[in-house]
Amino acid sequence: xxxxxxxxxxxxxxxxxxxxxxxxxxxxxxxxxxxxxxxxxxxxxxxxxxxxxxxxxxxxxxxxxxxxxxxxxxxxxxxxxxxxxxxxxxxxxxxxxxxxxxxxxxxxxxxxxxxxxxxxxxxxxxxxxxxxxxxxxxxxxxxxxxxxxxxxxxxxxxxxxxxxxxxxxxxxxxxxxxxxxxxxxxxxxxxxxxxxxxxxxxxxxxxxxxxxxxxxxxxxxxxxxxxxxxxxxxxxxxxxxxxxxxxxxxxxxxxxxxxxxxxxxxxxxxxxxxxxxxxxxxxxxxxxxxxxxxxxxxxxxxxxxxxxxxxxxxxxxxxxxxxxxxxxxxxxxxxxxxxxxxxxxxxxxxxxxxxxxxxxxxxxxxxxxxxxxxxxxxxxxxxxxxxxxxxxxxxxxxxxxxxxxxxxxxxxxxxxxxxxxxxxxxxxxxxxxxxxxxxxxxxxxxx
Length: 447
Description:
13 helices; Dipeptide-binding Protein, domain 1; globular
């Protein structure tokens, strides 16, 4: 009896100790390193932590309340009214009002390169009203995008939000974000998040290995290497589109020439060799798990057909610019140049050509996971502001087919987002678009 009692007591103690170790603890500073800018749209980590949007999207892409508690559509989707959550304050203590929300969205729409899906937004009592010339049935999903997050500037010009962290300053190469104790969603577990931007991947991995970083990036082409090194990985569904864009001018003004380029690219080589079989080969603006119909867009290569379409037309050497400048992007551009050479095109890869280049290799992040909102977002990313008609899969397929008919955007691959996580990080998960949700994470060594 005594032996059984002692064993039972020991098991209870072990269980209690294990529970104490796994229970989220408050405190500590989470150290994150990235290649990009912490404030960039749409995938800047700081923006996600400092700013809130009116809505959010669940894993299935459905809109859920955030700074707006409810909404309703009128006039067949031409007018929307969103009720603003009460009791929310910006980081400087000023209240969140319908007037502040309308002012923020008006400022967003006035920024260069931003196309808002509404024609007017104004405060009406405790609500914000949107009006649009065309019906916007997916406005609640669109308002979840980071581009439309709510912000205000204080007297000094600093950006204020309502999110779980506030900006604490920039020192020693890090953007210091401090926990918002009065956050309407509840205080985050960690006291602060230090984001170190513009860090090379090699340096990120080194810092993780010696304990100077807690979360670092793992590009799609390095996921296999990270697995071989037994890193603790978080990997998302496809979230970044690798695409070749073609300027419909000069030697490429003829759609047949652009179609020849589309037929000449070898997506399989990019997928198998450069990106190590990560993600999915595509000729669609949406990944298969979101649309369900990306397989309907042919992604095969036909060099003979490409040569026939090109005919005997002679072109000057075409410049191919590369965004990002990562080794994988440069290798992909060089591979595409070889593909096009086989079809009779002369291509020169140059990172500094910018927007004026006839060809450009881009990697575009997808913020939304709702099918129609995602297609709207991708069209806007490539400067195609045509309205998406309908919400059913068949209607979305027709809209995408019409958008791709001009052959100015050639989708190549959908790639996942990957992150390596240190041993002391607990409960870190990825949002549907592949970004870490640091507000819910904790540190094992916190006090």
